[in-house]
Structure formats: C-alpha cells, structure tokens
Design brief:
5-stranded mixed β-sheet; 8 helices; 7 strands
C-alpha cells in the first residue's frame, strides 16, 4: 500500500484520465495522497493502542478473579498472541434492562463482573481521538441501570488528553452520579501499561485500580 502511494505521488502511476495533468496538479495529488497515508497510519496506531489497553484491563480483571467481557464488536481481537476470546466470557450475561440499554452496555470496552453473575463491578472505556463524551454516556447508562451492583467507572485515555477528560467529567450529568455512590475516574495509558504486571501480581480486588486512577 505504501509503495503504491509512493508511485502515485511520484507520478509513476496516475489515476485514470490524469495523463495530461500539469506538474502542479500532479503535486497536488501527491500531497493529498501523502496526507491520507499519514491519516491511515495514525488510525492504525490508535487502534493498536486501543487494543493494547483493552488487553491490559482484561488481564488485570481476570487475575483479580472477575469474569471479564470486552465490547461485543471486539471479541475477535488479539494483542500479540493473546486472543481476547481466551480471556473473555463468550457474551455479556443478560441483564434486567431494556434491549436498547443492553446493546449500549455491550459496547463498553471492558467490563468486570462478579464471577458467575451479571453484576458489574467495574467498567472501562478506552478513549482515542474520538469524542470522550460518547464513552461517558455508555458508562452513565450502565450506572443508572445497575445502581446497586456497580462500584467504579473508568475512562482510560492517552496522556495528552487529561484536560479534555476533566472537562467532560465536570458535566452536571456526570457529577450527579456521585450522589448515588458511583464514581468516575480516569487512568492514563502509560500508567496502565507500566503497572499492569504489578497489579496482576499484588492486587486483591477492584480497589487496587484506585492506585493508578485520578478523579476531579
């Protein structure tokens, strides 16, 4: 793919009907292709990071003795040789919520459940360059639908997005969750990656995540 883009940009291969293009027009096409190539590479890197963070969360949850579930559309993913299907339940257990709410909950990036139950202990949304608020809304839907079971909600984010996360967590709808005993925290990618092994080795339950999490 990269070679094809290079040949297109260099003028060795031209799209159909562009044989008579001027040098300026050829250069414009080359710049456009180069820009799109950079965007594709960036998107690929973001997806890899997203998958890596999901893996760390699944691994930690499993080591702490919880049943773990990833988003319904991510169950075929793998991080290196580690297939999510080997770590996760085959599907999210049914819950006493309406169909639309259940569909929303099933798209949350990672859920930890009390073993053998459908009680969610922790929920995690891994954010990239997409809207942080969409992930917060999914977590909020879960909190409202399972107020007696849920312990903590987490946004897992790139290190350079802390200001964006804090801004969204200050929303009145999010702050209102505190009155029902539900807290929303955030964790930096670097902290999750750095401390994953130690948490797996020394952690006893979900409370260990507070060691690397922040809240406003």
């Amino acid at each position: 793919f990269s070679g094809l883009l290079f040949d297109l940009g260099a003028g060795k291969i031209l799209p159909h009907g562009t044989a008579a293009l001027s040098d300026e027009e050829r250069e414009k096409i080359a710049r456009s292709l180069k820009k799109r190539h950079a965007e594709v590479l960036s998107e690929h890197d973001e997806e890899n990071l997203h998958t890596e963070m999901q893996y760390h969360l699944l691994k930690i949850g499993k080591s702490l003795g919880y049943d773990v579930v990833c988003a319904a559309n991510d169950r075929s993913r793998a991080f290196g040789d580690h297939k999510f299907s080997f770590l996760c339940l085959p599907a999210l257990p049914q819950m006493s919520v309406d169909k639309d709410t259940f569909s929303t909950i099933s798209l949350i990036d990672v859920l930890w459940l009390e073993a053998g139950t459908n009680n969610v202990v922790c929920a995690f949304e891994v954010e990239k360059s997409t809207s942080i608020y969409s992930g917060i809304l999914r977590l909020t839907d879960l909190a409202i639908s399972q107020p007696d079971a849920l312990k903590t909600l987490f946004i897992v984010m790139p290190n350079d997005r802390e200001k964006d996360v804090v801004l969204q967590l200050r929303r009145p709808a999010v702050q209102a969750l505190k009155s029902s005993g539900v807290e929303m925290h955030y964790i930096a990618f670097s902290d999750l990656r750095e401390h994953c092994e130690a948490i797996c080795k020394f952690g006893k339950d979900h409370a260990v995540m507070q060691k690397i999490a922040k809240t406003i």
